[in-house]
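User: My advisor asked me to double-check a structure prediction for Tautomerase before group meeting. I don't want to rely on an old file, so could you generate it fresh from this sequence?
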Amino acid sequence: MPIITVKIAKGRTLEQKQEFVQAITNEAVKTLNVKKEWITVLFDEYERDNWATDGQLHSIKFGEGFGKQGTE
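Assistant: Sure, here is a fresh prediction for Tautomerase from the sequence you gave:
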């Protein structure tokens, strides 16, 4: 019974998360040879103020909206 945890910054739409869940579930079924209903996907979502890379908070480093569909 695989439990897959995904850590992402907040801001993704429900449609984006649903598409991702479908893709990762299908790949787990194929790769791990398990039933689709056995797979659980959990999202841990973080505010960009609580996530940093290279010594800089993502809210400052990347700005508002970074990573959302339709942005650079």
